[in-house]
Amino acid sequence: QVQLVESGGGLVQAGGSLRLSCAASGGTFSTYAMAWFRQAPGKERELVTNISRSGGITSYADSVKGRFTISRDNAKNTVYLQMNSLKPEDTAVYYCAARRLGKNIFAYWGQGTQVTVSS
User: Fold this and answer.
1) CA of 62: how far to CAs of 16, 46, 98, 105, in Å?
2) Please, are residues 107 and 79 in contact by the beta-carbon 8 Å criterion?
3) 79 near 71, Cβ under 8 Å?
4) Is 4 helix (H, G, I), strand (E, B) or coil?
5) H or E element: which one contains 69?
6) Cβ neighbour number for residue 99 with a 10 Å cutoff
7) 67: Cα separation from own chain's centroid
8) I need a labelling partner for 59 at 20 to 30 A (CA). Which of 34, 41, 45, 82 fits?
9) What is the distance between the alpha carbons of residues 111 and 102, in angstroms, rounded to a whole number?
10) Which residues, 6 or more positions from 36, have their beta carbon under 8 angstroms from its beta carbon?
11) Residue 86 CA, distance from chain mean position
12) What is the DSSP string of 37-67?
């Protein structure tokens, strides 16, 4: 069973950049598809982006296309989220999540990291 720990959140001005990391342990990382979700105050959790087990396939929410990039390093058991041109509406707690090979849901979650974008 995989455990996930996010890092890299913080406070940034609008237009700035942040890079989130999610380190995995306790499982075979390359057998998990990975994703980043976020939840803003008073809103439902939403899928931001996900990446296939090999890293060859990615998808993004329309709200972040062209600004965010997901990547993974299977040798380091880590998935990344590079966030550029940040906007105040990107303010949220960001969670990484893992979906095991053959499963339909993201069953494993990190504790989340706060991203705050000031205007």
Assistant:
1) 19, 12, 21, 21
2) no
3) yes
4) strand
5) strand 68-73
6) 18
7) 13
8) 41
9) 24
10) 20, 22, 47, 48, 49, 50, 70, 79, 81, 94, 95, 96, 97
11) 15
12) EEE-TTS--EEEEEE-SSS--EEE-TTTTTT
36: number of Cβ within 10 Å: 26
Question: Going by C-beta distance under 8 Å and a sequence separation of 6 or more, which residues neighbour residue 55?
Answer: 71, 72, 74
One-letter identity of residue 6:
E
Would you state the structure tokens that stand for residue 15, as one six-digit string?
């237009």
Per-residue pLDDT tens listing for the chain (119 residues): 899 999 999 999 999 999 999 999 998 999 999 999 999 999 999 999 999 999 999 999 999 999 999 999 999 999 999 999 999 999 999 999 999 988 999 999 999 999 999 99
Structure-token pair, residue 25: 């342990």
Strand order in the sheet with 78-83: 3-7, 18-25, 78-83, 68-73
**Position 68, amino acid:** F
φ, ψ of residue 57 to 5 degrees: the values are -125, 130
